[in-house]
Amino acid sequence: MAEVEVKAMKDGRLIDGTGAEPIERATVIIEGSKIKAVGKDIEIPNGAKVIDCTGKTVMPGLIDSHMHFFGLSKTNDIFIQALIRPRELALIKSIYDAKDLLACGFTTAKDCGGINTVFLKRAVAEGTLTGLPRIVAAGYTLTQTYGHGDTLYFPQECVDGRTSKHPGTRFTLLCDGVDECIKATRYTLREGADFIKVMTTPGLSSERHKLSDVTFNPDEIKAIVQTAAQMGKFVTAHCTNSRAAKNSILGGIKTIDHAIDINDEVVELAKENGAIFISTLATGSQMLNYGAELGVSPWLVERVKTIHALAYDSYKRIRKAGAIFAIGTDFNNTPLQPFSKTAIELELLVKYCDFTPMDAIVAATKNGAIACFMGDKTGTIEPGKFADIIVVDGNPLADIKILQSVDKIKLVMLEGKVEVDRGL
Prior knowledge:
The protein is an alpha/beta fold. It folds into 2 domains: 6-60 and 380-421, Urease, subunit C, domain 1; 62-371, TIM Barrel, CATH 3.20.20.140. Helix content is 32%, strand content 22%. It has 12 helices and 18 strands. The strands form 3 sheets. Strands 1, 2, 3, 4, 5, 16, 17 and 18 form an 8-stranded mixed β-sheet that branches. Strands 10-9-11-12-13-14-15 form a 7-stranded parallel β-sheet. A hairpin with an 8-residue loop joins strand 1 and strand 2. Helix 4 runs parallel beside helix 5 (218-229) and helix 8 (282-290) runs antiparallel to helix 9 (298-321). It is globular, with a radius of gyration of 21 Å.
């Protein structure tokens, strides 16, 4: 039997992800894939490989709890690509996108819709691919007819992933009524999903909808949740308003993603039911700053302005109430949404939503792991958890924007294996 490698990360500033005060000149002992010991004045075992982190910050790998590995080419037009670009090209590109995200310090990614990730996970599991973050995959997403994902300027036979002759990035299943929702849930699980993503409201880009609209009935939501639960899977809601959020939480959905317009009643309901809110400010921020020059429709840029004001208020409310809150971005590594800027979500929460830098880091580590239903495995630097760790040149508590500087991410470790080393 091969001897388990032991590593010792010493003398760094430790931010462990729990929200506790940093520990200066801390030591982290790693045995194989797991963290063995953490703290000050810990004896380094003989023969351990020592990683000197003096003057740097040691912290958990970051987690994006809402993103997509669409594998798009260097354009922002997802809909044109869905028609003219072969799915196989998207799958190949997604491999490199995943490597890019890990290189930016994100060790776990919750992909909230897209078929590429199902294959990426299988390729990692069989050893064909390495150097990718841990992936939690939704695979196909569920929407109703005339819901978000029922792309209205396509013929309907081109929309559903089970029947489309133009698969491209099509990853939607249309389902109406309890029986169809049950079957679509089972189909998604059959195709390899780790969880179910359901569109309970229209989306930002749904021009013919209002964001106050609600999709799926309560009985449909409950049917989806119960069917997923029978296989030990959780359900995530794409959700932009309080009416849909209330339906979702009462129906048993566990994460409320986007959470743009959320009232006090819904926040308290989430706390009572253990539901988790997930932010996605980054995409809108990129649209406001760069959308015009990158060809985003003017009506969409205007809609984002209104949405962001609502989201700021909602996220402040959620934080103040102490509900569980994780970060997402909705990024997919296009020029408008580059993975190199994924950590901008933390800056936006600090800048606009009354989060402290430590609040934002907890949202991107500990709470991200909770949102991926693996809080017992990762998200904090504690004994027994996977050694998913990054080393940062600087102090993100003093300047949260440091996490957006990829050259400052000096080391990325996933399950005890150093995947990225920038001269540490």
